[in-house]
Design brief:
Helix content: over 70%
Strand order of the largest sheet: 1-2
Distance between the termini: 61 Å
CATH superfamily of one domain: MetI-like
Order of helices and strands: HEEHHHHHHHHHH
Radius of gyration: 27 Å
Structural class: mainly alpha
CATH topology of one domain: MetI-like fold
Number of helices: 11
Number of strands: 2
């Protein structure tokens, strides 16, 4: 009996594993390393971008005093160039502020309607239509701002220039609406129904429940949506390059032409600055400044999200 062969189903799994099964097990051991490699790509890419920006921006700051970049005059192609970046900073912030003034209220109201008031059928119909705006190329938005929105606004504001900050700001806001709406609606949908039911049971209306219960509970996700929208507006290139113009004057008049940081980069990468010149290295200085802006926004958003995050 001791030498009797054991039934197949009593043989340990490893001892009956076929050659293909052993190979499959070896491949499975490699999977975590493949995933780690994929996750490291973004880290390596970010480090490479930062090193490139810092390295070439350092060449700029060796030749231009740090205090000069906070000046209001920018003339990079003069015989004696002047590099005051305040016109670029103000142009970027003004157009982004106009964009968020459009995207934030419309996007949040659309998200609240889709999450709290729309039926399932209506939500399934409207949400893809709203998100379709995100698929339109930004250069199309740029020509739309220049050839349609600006002439339309000129009838209302006669002193509006052919190139101005108002038109691209409004169109950027329209472009950002799908991002704000979709992310905010997801954050509101994540709020447990028990909170809504408790509020309604206490006699609150649906609007009061939406504003006083759902909105505060989803605030961390809504904040992330708004910060992503701001970052998208700050980094937008083609709309402002086409419709905002390239005026480097420091002004707060939204009816006049302004140049943003991304518009400046587009202008100089088209060949206006020879490689190795101070103007060429100023591109990296502006890019580094843009990177710092975006990084600061994301850090602030994370801090706000942690502060207001609700655990259910």
């Amino acid at each position: 009996m001791a030498n009797k062969k054991r039934p197949f189903w009593l043989i340990p799994f490893d001892s009956k594993m076929s050659g293909s099964g052993l190979r499959r097990k070896k491949y499975e051991r490699l999977i975590p390393y493949i995933f780690l490699l994929a996750a490291s790509v973004s880290i390596v890419t970010t480090v490479g971008i930062v090193l490139t920006l810092v390295g070439d921006a350092a060449n700029f700051f060796r030749q231009v005093p740090l205090k000069e970049i906070f000046g209001t005059r920018l003339a990079p192609l003069r015989a004696e160039p002047i590099f005051g970046f305040l016109p670029l900073i103000s142009g970027t912030l003004i157009t982004s502020a106009i964009a968020m003034a459009v995207a934030a209220p419309i996007g949040l109201m659309a998200a609240m309607y889709l999450s709290e008031f729309a039926s399932d059928k209506t939500r399934r119909l409207l949400k893809p239509i709203v998100e379709l705006l995100a698929g339109i190329p930004t250069i199309v938005y740029g020509f739309f701002a220049y050839s349609f929105v600006t002439p339309l606004l000129t009838k209302l504001i006669p002193e509006l220039g052919a190139k101005n900050a108002l038109s691209p700001g409004l169109v950027m806001g329209i472009m950002i609406i799908p991002m704000v709406t979709s992310l905010s609606e997801d954050a509101m949908n994540a709020v447990p129904d028990s909170l809504r039911e408790g509020s309604l049971a206490l006699g609150s209306t649906r609007l009061e429940t939406s504003l006083n219960v759902v909105f505060p509970a989803a605030l961390s996700g809504i904040t992330a949506a708004l910060v992503l929208g701001v970052s998208r507006a700050i980094g937008e290139t083609m709309i402002v390059a086409i419709a905002s113009g390239s005026s480097k004057n420091f002004t707060l008049d939204i009816t006049q032409s302004m140049q943003t940081m991304t518009g400046y980069i587009v202008e100089f990468t088209s060949g206006d600055a020879a490689s190795g010149t101070v103007g060429y290295y100023s591109l990296y200085a502006v890019g580094l400044l843009l990177f710092i802006f975006t990084l600061t926004l994301n850090l602030v958003a994370q801090r706000i999200a942690r502060k207001f995050k609700e655990a259910y």
